[in-house]
Amino acid sequence: MTVTTPDAPVTSRVVDSVEELVGETPLLRVRLAGIPEDTSLLAKLEMLNPLSSVKDRPALAMLRDAEATGLLPATGGTVIECSSGSTGISLAALCTLRGHRCIIVMPDNATEERRLILRQLGAEIVTVPHQEGLLAAWAHAERLQRATPGSWLPHQDRNPANVQAHYDTTGPEILRATAGRVDVLVCGVGTGGTLTGTARYLKQHTDVHVVAVEPARSAVLSGGEGGPHGIPGIGAGYVSDLTDLSLVDDVVTVPDEAAARTADEVTRATGLPVGISSGAAAHASRLIAGRSRWAGATVVTVFPDSGERYLSMAHH
Ligand code: PMP
Q1: Which residues have C-beta within 8 Å of that of residue 245, sequence separation ≥ 6?
Q2: Active site amino acids
Q3: Quick one: which of 259, 6, 57 has its CA closest to 164?
Q4: What is the required cofactor set for this protein (predicted)?
Q5: Nearest Cα to 105, choosing from 114, 94, 93, 96?
Q6: CA pair distance 130, 109, nearest whole angstrom
């Protein structure tokens, strides 16, 4: 039998490893009430990475870097990381694929679906009280790493490979997809890896205004106090060493309720369930897009993960 294939670009393909599926995510044009007709909001859909979040990028980059520099053997090593979920899930997938043991230290308020996915991927989970804060969780991970011979701690909030992943992939992808026409980048800040790497690349290639997004209840970039809040993934409560504040032109703080409400609004407007930090990014993007300075502009934001990771939080 002769099979003919159309001349159209072929995106269906055979890959040998899930690693090949990381990145090259599309930008979705999002239309929301309150965004002027002539202003474009384009959201980078990071839930389309294989493990369903933006964290596949830094997880892969950190792991490759550790293997290349000899911090981790090519197989049979032990990876220990502190993560409220996304980074842990990405690392767990790469570890099972490469034959490493994976231990994830996570706050005890992480959603049940995150714990279940981690277990399914064969990771070991160590829970720590969330009341003690993220820095206490890091200290726990560091103790565990010291007590586990031959283990490696990626330390996503101070590992330069986290920033490099976004400088090498997220930034160039946005520049290519918009043919260089990106006026504003709106980006949530957790470790600061996404913002720092993406903004650094884009600022080297185009005149882009960079807006950082943080929870109103943990507004450390705005000079406030860190604290508990309801936007998982951003607002770590401290400014990480990776966050390059010289790249930030503007900071928008988002109340918890606005993030959750806007995540629902985006989900209904696009048909794509988005996570709460995506709601925060969309809320901030709409605020910026409504300013007369940005009439007719292209505003690009990052939607870090899917709403399906938060269903058990039932904020509806
Ligand atoms: N949103 C979600 C859901 C995340 O998991 C993360 C990563 N922790 C972010 C936003 C922020 O990304 P970054 O760590 O690169 O600042």
Answers
A1: 221, 239
A2: 55, 277
A3: 57
A4: pyridoxal 5'-phosphate
A5: 114
A6: 6
**Nearest-angstrom CA–CA distance, 131 and 191:** 19
Contact assessment for residue 259 and residue 252, using Cβ atoms and an 8 Å cutoff? no
CA dist 56 and 165 (Å) reads 10
- Residues 78 and 112: their CA atoms lie apart, in Å, by 24
State the pLDDT at residue 110. 86
303 Cα: distance to centroid of ligand 1 (angstroms): 9
Protein residue whose Cα sits closest to atom 5 of ligand 1: 233
Q: How far apart are CA 115 and CA 126, in angstroms?
A: 10
Closest CA to 232 of 110, 57, 49: 110
Per-10-residue mean pLDDT for the chain, 316 residues long?
57 91 98 96 98 98 97 96 93 97 93 93 95 88 95 97 98 98 98 98 98 98 94 93 98 98 98 98 98 97 96 70
> In the prediction, which pLDDT does 3 show?
59
Enter the ipTM.
Answer: 0.96
Distance in angstroms between the alpha carbons of the first and the last residue of the chain: 53
Does 193 sit in the ligand 1 pocket, CB within 6 Å? Answer: yes
* pLDDT score, position 85: 84
Atom number in ligand 1 closest to CA 243: 16
Task: Choose among 45, 57, 35: nearest CA to 299.
Answer: 35
